[in-house]
Amino acid sequence: MSTKLERRMSRCEEDLEAIGSTALSIRDTVERHTGQLFKIRGEINALGEMVTDTRGEILEVKLVQSQQSRTLDEHSSVLAEHSKALTELRGGMAELRGGMAEILRRLPAND
Prior knowledge:
- The protein is an all-alpha fold.
- The protein has one helix at residues 3-106.
- The longest helix is centred in the middle third of the chain and has 104 residues, at 3-106.
C-alpha cells in the first residue's frame, strides 16, 4: 500500500474513533437526561397529587363556610325576630307607663 493510502486509512480510523467516542458521549448524555426526566415526571406527579389534595381541602373549607353562612343567616333571622319582639315590648311598656301615669293623676291626693 502506498503511504498516501495508509495516511488516509489512518485518518479514517481516527475519524471513526472520534465518531464512536462522540456517539458514546451522546448516549451517556441521553441516558443522564432520561433519568432526570423520569425524576422530574415523578416530581410532577407528586405535585399533581398535592394539587388534587389541596383542591379537596379547599372544597371542604368552602362547604364549611357555606354551612356557617347558612347558620349565620339563620341566627341573623332569629335575631331580627327578637329585635322586632323587643321593639313591640318596648312600645307596650311605653303604653303601660302612660296608662299608669294617667291612673296616678286620677287618684285623689293624700294630704
